[in-house]
Amino acid sequence: MLLPLFAIACLQTTLAAAPTPTTDGFVGLRPSNDNNAASSSNTLYLDPPLGGSVLIDGFDCKAGVASLAAWNTTLTSRVDDLSAQVDAAKALRVQLTTEVEQLRDAVLGLCQTLKQQSIDTLAAGHTGIVTAVAAQGNRLYSATNDHTIVVWDTHSPPRKVHTLSAHTDHVRCLAVDNATNRLFSGSTDGTIRVWDTAATPPALLHTLTGHTRAVISLVIHGARLYSGSWDATIGVWDVTQAPPLNLHNLTSHSGDVSALAARGNRLFSGSVDDSIRVWDLTQSPPFVLHALTNAIQNDVQSLAIHNNRLFAGDQSAIHVWDLTQSPPTHTHSLSPGRFTRDVWSLVIHDDRLYSSSSHAAVAVWDLLVDPAVSLGRLIGHDGSVLALAVHDNRLYSGSDDQTIRAWDISPC
After folding, report:
1. Three-class SS of residue 34?
2. What is the rounded distance in angstroms from the CA atom of residue 246 to the CA atom of residue 257?
3. Cβ–Cβ under 8 Å, residues 306 and 333
4. Cβ 366 vs Cβ 372: under 8 Å
5. What is d(CA 412, CA 410) in angstroms, rounded to the nearest whole number?
6. Whether 389 contacts 133, CB under 8 Å
7. Gap between the Cα atoms of 19 and 37, Å rounded
8. How far apart are CA 53 and CA 37, in angstroms?
9. Please, is 54 exposed, middle or buried when counting C-beta atoms within 10 Å of its C-beta (0-12, 13-18, 19+)?
């Protein structure tokens, strides 16, 4: 702490004076040349040892030092008071921050609770279980085991506008090519039907017959359509041709090819042979780079890709692979109980993974953290949720309760 100037002067003068005793009990300095010694700048008077005063240029240093001590005590007290106020302000800030976070969590919780209620139910469209859904603009397509495809207008309230009939057996899978306005449908009758979605109602364009058994999975990637079948093959179709041309039938799996996903120059295929194949699409025909079998316990039923992670749903969990490694490395599995049993479908939207199961619910996962964490469940169906599709912050879920639910998945 800085001392006042008068205190510094007192100390300097006292130390420099080197006073000597006098006969009258006082301590004095050498006389000043000035006749008025009391006002001399180098005159120092000290009282006897038990009391008295020290004068410098008429200033009482002892009283000044006492004042300085009192001032220092007062200042120290004020500093302590200010420190206490600062500590109180910091504590208040922590309290307010906690309360704001609690309020934010409460608002987000209320938002999530409201969003866990379906905004629309599309019913009375089918007489069988809903096995597949696909969205395009304000149209939703749903397939069932009643051999039909229903077209819905998704403006609220949604309404059924058309029924497409061409297949002779259960319709198992759907894929929409937005670039060419075509809908592809795969069926247990072993065919793929191609529909013109620009027409009203959608018109049947072609029937593709490249498989010997049911077509149960479809994915469009660039100028190619890939189809998975009970015949354990993957059909490769050139969709720039009319009708699409069957280029290859890829063989490697020993069971039904139940799930497909593609990213860049890789195709991923999941099968009931408890494996995932990774295919190199830069070659013609594509060939297998890797076979992923670790961690998979039973039939692979669904696949999805987010950034550099591959998600695969089987009958017991959602398994995750790191795609930056070659071969991809299994990192962990998501299995929080019954809601990851029979993972029939996986879709990804805005860094969230949605997974359907046999327990009448859709699980929601946060992909911004690794491993992904559960954000809750969308509950509304009365039966297994078999199919999912997402479009414009709307999630559509198809169930064996013969209904489709629409969910608001826009950010809170």
Report:
1. coil
2. 17
3. no
4. yes
5. 6
6. yes
7. 15
8. 16
9. buried
> What's the rounded Cα separation, in Å, for the pair 134 and 137?
10
How many of the other CB atoms lie within 10 Å of CB of 24? 8
What is the token pair recorded at 293?
Answer: 């079998």
Q: Give burial (CB, 10 Å; 0-12/13-18/19+) of 160.
A: middle
Q: Is 313 exposed, middle or buried (0-12, 13-18, 19+ CB in 10 A)?
A: buried
Predicted TM-score of the model (pTM) = 0.73
Q: 17-46: per-residue pLDDT in tens? A: 444 444 444 344 444 444 444 444 444 444
Asked if 253 and 273 touch (Cβ cutoff 8 Å), the reply is yes
Percent of the chain with pLDDT over 70: 79
323-361 confidence digits (pLDDT tens): 999 999 999 999 756 555 789 999 999 999 999 988 888
Cα distance between residue 136 and residue 132, in whole Å:
14
> What CA–CA distances, in Å, run from 35 to 13, 18, 43, 285?
20, 22, 11, 121
Structural tokens at position 302: 């669904």
Helix, strand and coil in the chain, % to nearest 5: 20, 40, 40
